[in-house]
TrEMBL record:
Annotated InterPro entries: Aldolase_TIM (IPR013785), DapA-like (IPR002220)
Species this protein is from: Agrobacterium bohemicum
Lineage: Bacteria, Pseudomonadati, Pseudomonadota, Alphaproteobacteria, Hyphomicrobiales
Family annotation (Gene3D superfamilies): Aldolase class I
GO MF, one example: 4-hydroxy-tetrahydrodipicolinate synthase activity
Recorded superkingdom: Bacteria
Similarity comment: Belongs to the DapA family.
Pfam entry (one): DHDPS
Official protein name in the record: Dihydrodipicolinate synthase
Active site: residue positions: Y139, K169
Residues holding pyruvate: T47, I210
Keyword entries, A-Z: Lyase
Length: 294
């Protein structure tokens, strides 16, 4: 697709009491996000608990999205696995369905791995994808994976795989790293994962964000991700969110804004936030965004 990447809602995944995915609620949230100004939605990402969603369920989600009339060009698919073969299979299935991009995290089971090892892993994924390989956003989120993608590694990957490695989602929260990434690879799609740095990063050439907060504050996050508008309220809210496990906390606020209690549920090994802490988080949200809250 041409133009800036813009804002993608890192779609939360609703789970029924038996742990299964509630497809109608997920589709509704995807359509709601797009209608509110998001340029795409990202399924199977960190906020979507993608590492808990197996290949069969992934196929069911993609089919449900397409059957519901969602255009695949508005879908980004996360891939969060350790096996290069599994990564290629998952990415290939999403690309076959027409997904706009693949958000590809590095393998995370082994720690203290080298750039050479990571380069070979990504190379294996792309080789197994073959002619399908395109529009890959490599995902730097060391707080989760414990594996950092160096600026040098990104340079090696983009030069070895032009037209395949087309961007980076940087969720490091390391502003000097983000600055260097923008300075050295500005012609790539650089997406800022930490909303506290989002507006400034966009003003320096970043192309937007894949944001969990877009699930419940799409207009406000879009102003930052597309127009580079600062919003101190968002920065303050992120501080509040980081007091809790982030994905369950995001789901609390999705539930608050939509009025749908299903969003309180998460999959193991995550656990839901207590009622007491839900009340505290909602109160913090209300104090910052009272006029927007439902």
């Amino acid at each position: 697709m041409t133009g800036k990447f813009g804002l993608s809602a890192a779609l939360t995944t609703p789970f029924a009491q038996d742990g299964s995915i509630d497809f109608p609620t997920m589709i509704t949230q995807a359509k709601r996000s797009l209608a509110a100004g998001c340029n795409s939605v990202t399924v199977f990402g960190t906020t979507g608990e993608g590492s808990t969603i197996g290949n069969r369920e992934r196929a069911e989600v993609l089919s449900a999205c397409l059957d519901a009339g969602l255009d695949a060009k508005f879908l980004v698919a996360g891939v969060l696995v350790d096996s290069a073969q599994d990564a290629a299979d998952q990415a290939g299935a999403a690309l076959d369905a027409g997904a706009r991009n693949i958000l590809l995290a590095p393998p995370s089971y082994f720690k203290n791995v080298t750039d050479d090892g990571l380069f070979e892993w990504f190379s294996s994924v792309f080789q197994q994808l073959g002619d399908k390989a395109r529009d890959i956003l490599v995902y730097n989120i060391p707080s989760v994976t414990m594996v950092a993608l160096s600026v040098e590694l990104i340079g090696r990957l983009r030069h070895a795989f032009p037209g395949i490695v087309t961007g980076v989602k940087d969720s490091s929260g390391d502003w000097p790293y983000t600055q260097r990434l923008l300075a050295e690879h500005r012609d790539l799609i650089i997406l800022i994962g930490d909303e506290r740095h989002l507006a400034q990063g966009v003003r320096l050439g970043g192309q937007g964000a894949i944001s969990g907060c877009a699930n419940f504050l799409p207009s406000e996050i879009r102003a930052m991700a597309v127009d580079g508008v600062e919003d101190k309220r968002i920065e303050d809210l992120v501080v509040e969110l980081l007091k809790y496990p982030v994905t369950p906390a995001v789901k609390v606020l999705v539930s608050h804004v939509t009025g749908e209690k299903i969003w309180h549920s998460v999959r193991p090994p995550l656990v839901s936030i207590s009622a007491e802490n839900r009340t505290k988080l909602v109160a913090a949200f209300e104090s910052l965004f009272r006029s927007q809250a439902a």
